[in-house]
Amino acid sequence: MNKPFNDVFLKACRKEETPYVPVWYMRQAGRYQPEYRKLRREHSFFEMSENPEICVEITRLPVEQLGVDAAILFADIMTPVKHLGIDVAIFPGIGPMITNPIRTEADIHRLGELDPVAHIPTVLEAVRILNQQLSVPLIGFAGGPFTLASYMIEGQSSKNHHKTKGLMYAHPKAWQVLMEKLADMTLTYLKAQIRAGAHAVKVFDSWVGSLSDVDFRTYVAPTMRVIFDELQKMGVPTIYFGIGAGHLLAEWNKLPVSVIGLDWRTSIRSVRAQGINKVLQGNMDPSLLLGPWELIEERAKQVLDQGMERAGYIFNLGHGIFPEVQVDVLKKLTHFVHQYTTIPEVWG
Questions:
Q1: Which UniProt keywords apply (predicted)?
Q2: pTM exceeds cut of 0.85
């Protein structure tokens, strides 16, 4: 018999009353798990993420191990990009590497379109299986157009995004074409995940924090508005997250997105003091997970106390779990979050 469905995460996304603060972790399906590392030694990343059986196992494992309130699909933001005609591989410790980066406007016009049925049937099959097996909501996800554009233009992760911004500034019409193509791909990808059974979707815009608020508003916000406007019609919660993007939150607050994910640099209290009225997710520094338990507990309390000052809060880290983190520490933290936030006087 299937376990009762735990919808606490979805309730928090909608600012509904919850019995405790829900918790899940970015990159909870990944390199810190011995089971994942064993599989990774035997398969390439895309072989793992596009094999339904392996994808389901890796996605489900942290839910069973840690007791988290949501699962996130095991995939990568580059999963759909390679079907546009981009030659990409993912290397351990390095990340995505592209051998045919975008260099001209003609390269942009040559990009193909994502066909979910033809290109990602195994990903969607994994979503359908997970929808039947999980007792918590499944989060689907995609990369943000600016972040995807940066990888596609730079050819790999970049510290300064000079080539990307150079194209954006010098060739705004070509940039707009690229944004439109990536918005179409992102929507096609996320809508397919939702139709297959994803209960919520998240846009990871890892590098968008490298933009000023003026540049975000000018070159990226119109694209994000189109994406979240369309996703809103699908009737599932949406989440937006980026690194070092505290200066962009006022702009994000204008978007039709359900939840804003925070990194560890910005306190929850200071965000709400700006008038940000979205549901917030975050934002303990993941490096703390290497510290002593007493410090982890103290900092978790600080984050939780701020999060619970208003309705609509989800506990998470301020970035993804990294390989050195121990499974037992995450399990203990998850239990602590649930236990601490169900004490009536804490809510009072």
A1: Cytoplasm, Decarboxylase, Lyase, Porphyrin biosynthesis
A2: yes
